[in-house]
Amino acid sequence: MNNHQNSMKTHRTDPKRPLKGEKARQAILNKLADHPATLAVAQEVTSFFGSRFQYSESENIDTSEFGLGIEPIVALIHLKVGTSRITQSLAHELLHLRLAVRKFPKYSEMDAPDHLEKFISDLSENYDPLLNIVQHEIMLPEFLALGFQQKDFLVPPRPPANYQRLVRTSKNQIIPEVRFPWWCLEYIRHWSHARHSTLLQPALYASEALEFGKSEFPELPQAVNQMTQVFENGHFKDASKYPSEVNKLLSIMLVPIITQWVEFSSEQPGHPIAKFIRTE
Ligand SMILES: [Zn+2]
Fold first, then answer.
1. How far is the CA of 137 from the centre of ligand 1 (A)?
2. How far is ligand 1, taken at its centre, from the CA of residue 110, in Å?
3. 92 CA to middle of ligand 1, Å?
4. In angstroms, what is the span from residue 95 Cα to ligand 1's centroid?
5. 257 with 111: CB under 8 angstroms?
6. How far is the CA of 159 from the centre of ligand 1 (A)?
7. Cβ pair 194, 206 in contact under 8 A
8. Which of 23, 93, 183, 266 could form a disulfide with 213 if both were Cys (CB 3.0 to 4.6 A apart)?
9. d(C-alpha 115, C-alpha 96), whole Å
10. How far is the CA of 98 from the centre of ligand 1 (A)?
11. C-alpha 91 – ligand 1 centre gap (Å)
């Protein structure tokens, strides 16, 4: 257990009225005064986003989170305080935002083939969780390089649904075009949690997801095996390959691929601009 929070002055802010720009930057830099490595990350991120950076903190949220908006450009961190891993959480969210600073684009448009058009709102629920997992794969070595421990990288996972009951009931209620990606993501979510933490349960959850998912979709083991290979190759750690590697994962899951991305740049520090790029 670390005791970072004991040495830290915390002042609560209302997430609906976050600190902005220079005030947000100062609040974060003050928090990291005794952790120079993370302070450098905070400086890089906040000077890139300038007046577009926002920060708030509270005790009453499940976990810390970051956000990145395009129109208008907003980069925000909402930090959960009152825990034993505040500095680690702040570093984690800063590393998510630093990926945008380092030219890893954000998704903006997908291209659904006609037969998937009507399921697009259900299928859209795959993008954020999948990209979050991909980003964690890129960020973990950076987190360790800041001097933190792997056990402090993630909060413990949500326990899985009752898969047995799910297999019995969902068949009649949810169409296969939505169920197959769900099983893929469910497996990958646990598999990556095992890979990115020091916990034992996620590996068990992963094998359970595979066992029950396979009873519905015999092709599931092959699909998730292809997905884990994309992670293990790690080509998406190169920002220029990130879009196409993410699309590989989406194709395996049978989810519409992303055809438009947004890259952030800040030639004049503190004044980021968004540039749309298309991939086919
Ligand atoms: Zn994260």
1. 10
2. 23
3. 6
4. 8
5. yes
6. 17
7. yes
8. 183
9. 34
10. 12
11. 10
Asked whether the whole model's pTM tops 0.90, one would answer yes
Lookup result for tokens 């970051």 = 66
**133 CA → ligand 1 middle, Å:** 7
Tokens of 161: 């649904």
Given a contact cutoff of 8 angstroms between Cβ atoms, the answer to whether 209 and 164 are in contact is: no
Cα 72 to ligand 1 centroid, rounded to whole Å: 23
Long-range contacts of 114-122 (CB under 8 A, 24+ apart): 115/177, 116/177, 116/256, 119/175, 119/177, 119/178, 120/256, 122/178
Written as tens digits, the pLDDT of the chain (280 aa) is: 333 333 333 445 666 789 999 999 999 999 999 999 999 999 999 999 999 999 999 999 989 999 999 989 999 999 999 999 999 999 999 999 999 999 999 999 998 888 888 888 899 999 999 999 999 999 999 999 999 999 999 988 888 989 988 888 877 677 889 999 999 999 999 999 999 999 999 999 999 999 999 999 999 999 999 999 999 999 999 999 999 999 999 999 999 999 999 999 988 889 999 999 998 6
Dist CA 42 CA 24 (whole Å):
11
Output the CA 96–ligand 1 centroid distance in Å. Answer: 7
